């Protein structure tokens, strides 16, 4: 009797195991999440980081909708894209503001002055994107349900309220390492031993006394700026949602931020600092696992070089026309005198700083592929 019972139990367990394995091997039906990305910053480089995140999610089968202030350089065929561009008049004001910035000696004070003056346009115009009929059509459609909202941060903390509107979590995407305004949303502490972004400290070296004083002044300055910006955010919040009784206060809405994706990698870039679990470093997310083939003119130009190559770019926001002519001339003389092939990001390719056999001017560069 005992032997028969043991045999029966063994057969039953064996059959159960076979059944579980069979169920495990069967294809399982899954549904992708509905994801909304709102990226209102007027910066191509910011958008590349934000879209690299959303492209990855689209590749995994999620349903992605993106609202941005410009067409993206990085995208996916399944992403639904709504573009709300800046007006030509505002573009000119922004360009003139950038020209003024580069003529001033860089410091924490000129940085803050720029934010209060020319860059305030970028802060103001982000509200216009949310008031635009193209966004409002998506926003007011009660049939639109989202499981998570990504908000691209650039002095626009009030936009985290979109999570309350769609009753879903919010993830903040930021194009740099953790900073005060982003840390505040996740309760990531500000540490006096960690240099601010604009304080250059050699790798493995502590701050000297002068740098500590600069860091202190910078921290105080950014805290004051943050107080001012939060006051403005509150105004924007009331302008957008003040009449909506279903919306929480701005302070409550800010607590709905679940994660912040920061485009930094402290271990390789520094400074290394502790972060709360809600701060996720994604430095390098825009880098492709396999580069695309280079355009023929760039490929041919690089292959000519026997001493290597230099890629010279001042980013997507600073154009050649913003730089003083004598500075451009100095840069040209330096780059034209080196042995390496030089690819120079220059927007107006019909009016270049000069001609040199070792310099190729390009308006847009596939940096990862190069």
TrEMBL record:
Pfam families: UDPGT (PF00201)
Family indicated by similarity: Belongs to the UDP-glycosyltransferase family.
Protein name per Swiss-Prot or TrEMBL: UDP-glucuronosyltransferase 2B15
Superkingdom field: Eukaryota
Annotated keywords: Glycosyltransferase, Signal, Transferase
InterPro entries cross-referenced by the UniProt entry: UDP-glycosyltransferase, UDP_glucos_trans
Any one Gene Ontology molecular-function term assigned to this protein's record: UDP-glycosyltransferase activity
Record bears the keyword Kinase: no
Span of the signal peptide: 1-32
Species: Drosophila rhopaloa (Fruit fly)
